[in-house]
Design the sequence.
């Protein structure tokens, strides 16, 4: 009698890793998984495929595109090649500096497990010139809910944003993974 | 007689110890159940707890959230395994500022007291045909009725908004034709047409300014 043993490995969403922008994406990345600062005077926030994100049109300010890949719990993490919703939360208790209004958001991974994200500071077009100087940080936490079960990802990102209106307006947007 | 008293005392003590052991066993069993609940969910703010609950319930819905500038936020611990009512009750029991209600297929979390609720803004007509859910949501907030109603509620967009949020892979298209509805009803109609999305309307009340930000989850 022939016995065949098959081992199944069930992938559980565990973390997000930075991943290089594929060549087809625009703009080109500044460093691994992080795009350059895009300035807006009266424009739209665009994703890496050139499409408007949500309904963010007629905005001024600045943003960066980011690209992550969802990986599993294995010691050598493997990509999870599936479309899932990733919820992004910004606990108020972890903010520093100016309290710039933020709200829980979400994104979806594509079939390759890529999650596109944006970090930035925006306002209604025409209002940036008179907007006040700001500086602050937010911590970004991620979770995935599949079939009614929530998986908190271990990855925590510290996002620092700032705007200084002196003369030539300067925007600061940095994105640092503080817990992988 | 003396022997009988000693035996009676010993029996009483034994029974007493047995009861204590049984109580300890029950207590440790309760601890275990409670730990399992806490083990699955760390304390989070109401906003995140609501999103967590609705995603776990796979139910559409939304919330009107009020944030005061120097307010400490209570941490909500959601039970690991719970019914819809138990999950929502856990949120409102922790932050008594809110109550929850069902509206059609939607679950909503709303403040107990808020003078001018933007959810009550009246919309004469909202019509979308075969559009992506995110497009329908965007078009709702472009309506003149909604923009004027928001200003009438003394609400303003913040000078700066922190932008964060992923790109959505949104394929579902919806058609809606709503007449004489409130903003709350229209938002619920959008998420119900999708089947699982969540709308958030957050107002930050600080130093005489009422700023608002909105979001569509999932």
Sequence:
């Amino acid at each position: 009698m022939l016995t065949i043993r098959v081992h199944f490995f069930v992938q559980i969403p565990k973390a997000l890793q930075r991943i290089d922008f594929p060549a087809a994406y625009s703009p080109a990345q500044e460093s691994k998984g992080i795009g350059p600062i895009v300035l807006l005077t009266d424009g739209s926030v665009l994703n890496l495929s050139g499409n408007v994100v949500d309904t963010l049109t007629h905005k001024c300010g600045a943003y960066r595109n980011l690209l992550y890949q969802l990986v599993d719990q294995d010691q050598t993490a493997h990509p999870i090649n599936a479309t899932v919703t990733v919820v992004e939360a910004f606990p108020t208790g972890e903010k520093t500096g100016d309290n710039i209004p933020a709200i829980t958001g979400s994104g979806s991974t594509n079939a390759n497990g890529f999650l596109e994200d944006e970090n930035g500071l925006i306002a209604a077009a025409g209002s940036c010139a008179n907007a006040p100087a700001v500086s602050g940080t937010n911590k970004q936490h991620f979770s995935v809910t599949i079939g009614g079960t929530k998986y908190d990802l271990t990855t925590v990102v510290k996002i620092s944003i700032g705007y200084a209106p002196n003369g030539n307006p300067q925007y600061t947007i940095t994105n640092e993974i503080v817990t992988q | 007689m003396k022997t009988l008293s000693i035996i009676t005392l010993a029996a009483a003590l034994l029974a007493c110890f047995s009861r204590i052991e049984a109580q300890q066993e029950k207590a440790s069993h309760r601890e275990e159940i409670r730990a399992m609940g806490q083990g699955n969910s760390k304390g989070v703010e109401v906003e995140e707890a609501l999103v967590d609950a609705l995603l776990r319930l796979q139910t559409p819905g939304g919330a009107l959230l009020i944030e005061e500038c120097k307010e400490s936020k209570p941490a909500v611990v959601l039970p690991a395994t719970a019914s819809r009512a138990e999950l929502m009750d856990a949120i409102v029991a922790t932050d008594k500022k809110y109550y929850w209600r069902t509206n059609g297929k939607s679950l909503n979390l709303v403040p107990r007291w808020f003078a001018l609720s933007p959810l009550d803004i009246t919309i004469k007509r909202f019509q979308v045909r075969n559009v992506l859910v995110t497009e329908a949501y965007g078009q709702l907030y472009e309506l003149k009725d909604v923009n004027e109603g928001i200003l009438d509620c003394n609400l303003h967009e913040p000078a700066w908004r922190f932008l964060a949020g992923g790109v959505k892979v949104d394929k579902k298209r919806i058609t809606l034709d709503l007449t004489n509805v409130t903003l709350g009803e229209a938002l619920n109609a959008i998420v119900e047409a999708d089947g699982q999305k969540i709308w958030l309307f957050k107002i930050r009340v600080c130093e005489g300014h009422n700023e608002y930000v909105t979001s569509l989850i999932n």
